[in-house]
Design a protein that fits this description.
This protein is 45% helix and 13% strand. It is α+β, with helices and mostly antiparallel strands. Strand 1 (2-5) and strand 2 form a beta hairpin.
Protein backbone atom coordinates (compact mmCIF):
# COMPACT_ATOMS: atom_id res chain seq x y z
CA UNK A 1 0.00 0.00 0.00
CA UNK A 2 1.41 3.38 -1.03
CA UNK A 3 0.27 6.41 0.97
CA UNK A 4 1.11 9.98 0.00
CA UNK A 5 1.00 12.77 2.55
CA UNK A 6 0.33 15.90 0.51
CA UNK A 7 3.26 18.26 0.54
CA UNK A 8 5.57 15.59 1.95
CA UNK A 9 6.47 12.13 0.71
CA UNK A 10 5.06 8.79 -0.29
CA UNK A 11 5.33 5.87 2.10
CA UNK A 12 5.11 2.16 1.44
CA UNK A 13 3.19 0.34 4.15
CA UNK A 14 2.56 -3.36 4.57
CA UNK A 15 -0.91 -4.48 3.52
CA UNK A 16 -1.49 -5.42 7.15
CA UNK A 17 -1.23 -1.72 8.08
CA UNK A 18 -4.21 -0.80 5.86
CA UNK A 19 -6.72 -1.68 8.57
CA UNK A 20 -5.03 0.55 11.16
CA UNK A 21 -4.70 3.44 8.69
CA UNK A 22 -8.41 3.05 7.94
CA UNK A 23 -9.27 3.07 11.67
CA UNK A 24 -7.25 6.23 12.25
CA UNK A 25 -8.80 7.91 9.22
CA UNK A 26 -12.30 6.92 10.36
CA UNK A 27 -11.56 8.53 13.72
CA UNK A 28 -10.71 11.79 11.94
CA UNK A 29 -13.94 11.55 9.93
CA UNK A 30 -15.99 11.04 13.11
CA UNK A 31 -14.35 14.05 14.75
CA UNK A 32 -14.91 16.29 11.73
CA UNK A 33 -18.51 15.15 11.24
CA UNK A 34 -19.15 15.62 14.97
CA UNK A 35 -17.78 19.16 14.87
CA UNK A 36 -15.18 18.37 17.53
CA UNK A 37 -12.51 20.87 16.55
CA UNK A 38 -10.60 20.27 19.80
CA UNK A 39 -9.92 16.63 18.93
CA UNK A 40 -9.06 17.21 15.29
CA UNK A 41 -5.37 18.10 15.60
CA UNK A 42 -4.54 15.05 17.73
CA UNK A 43 -6.47 12.62 15.52
CA UNK A 44 -5.03 14.01 12.32
CA UNK A 45 -1.49 13.95 13.76
CA UNK A 46 -1.98 10.34 14.91
CA UNK A 47 -2.92 9.30 11.36
CA UNK A 48 0.04 11.05 9.74
CA UNK A 49 2.46 9.93 12.46
CA UNK A 50 1.38 6.32 12.02
CA UNK A 51 2.04 6.47 8.28
CA UNK A 52 5.45 8.08 8.81
CA UNK A 53 6.43 5.61 11.57
CA UNK A 54 5.20 2.41 9.95
CA UNK A 55 5.92 3.31 6.35
CA UNK A 56 9.13 3.25 4.40
CA UNK A 57 9.70 6.40 2.33
CA UNK A 58 9.46 5.77 -1.40
CA UNK A 59 12.50 7.03 -3.29
CA UNK A 60 11.86 10.28 -5.16
CA UNK A 61 12.89 8.71 -8.47
CA UNK A 62 10.57 5.72 -7.95
CA UNK A 63 7.31 6.38 -9.78
CA UNK A 64 4.71 4.68 -7.61
CA UNK A 65 0.99 5.34 -7.83
CA UNK A 66 -0.48 6.32 -4.47
CA UNK A 67 -3.30 4.14 -3.18
CA UNK A 68 -4.27 6.85 -0.69
CA UNK A 69 -3.49 10.56 -0.58
CA UNK A 70 -3.75 12.16 2.85
CA UNK A 71 -4.09 15.91 3.36
CA UNK A 72 -1.07 17.86 4.60
CA UNK A 73 -0.18 18.18 8.26
CA UNK A 74 -1.19 21.85 8.29
CA UNK A 75 -4.78 21.15 7.20
CA UNK A 76 -7.21 23.25 9.24
CA UNK A 77 -10.38 21.95 10.83
CA UNK A 78 -12.45 24.06 8.41
CA UNK A 79 -10.59 22.61 5.42
CA UNK A 80 -10.98 19.11 6.81
CA UNK A 81 -14.75 19.44 6.47
CA UNK A 82 -14.41 19.00 2.72
CA UNK A 83 -11.76 16.25 2.90
CA UNK A 84 -12.94 13.94 5.70
CA UNK A 85 -16.65 13.30 5.22
CA UNK A 86 -18.91 10.34 4.49
CA UNK A 87 -16.68 7.36 3.74
CA UNK A 88 -13.63 9.56 4.19
CA UNK A 89 -10.53 9.23 2.09
CA UNK A 90 -10.37 5.45 2.39
CA UNK A 91 -13.69 3.79 1.52
CA UNK A 92 -14.55 0.80 3.72
Amino acid sequence: MIVRISGEDQYKLADADAERVNELENAVVAIVEGGNEDGFSNASAALLDYVRAQGTPVAEDDLETSDVILPPADLTFAEAGSEFTGEGLIPD
